[in-house]
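Fold this sequence, please.
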Amino acid sequence: MFVRLARPIDFDAIDDIPVDLVFLLLVPADGGKDHLNLLAAVARQLRSPEVLKKLRQAGSAEACWAVVTSGEVLRGDG
């Protein structure tokens, strides 16, 4: 699940920047460690200022989905 918050929240982050983009991964308890690869792929994509900008500027859920899937985030390709 991806959520773009209307009002960023303080999260005591190292960079002191409030959080406005949130990804949630729900995995079964017996799902192994595949979720770690997916989490790593999401983290890699979210390091890109261009991806962050596109997610923040997306005007619809479909536009957000297009940004996420265009970066191969969900498949873990990079």
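Helices lie at 34-46, 49-57, 61-70. The two ends are 18 Å apart (CA to CA).
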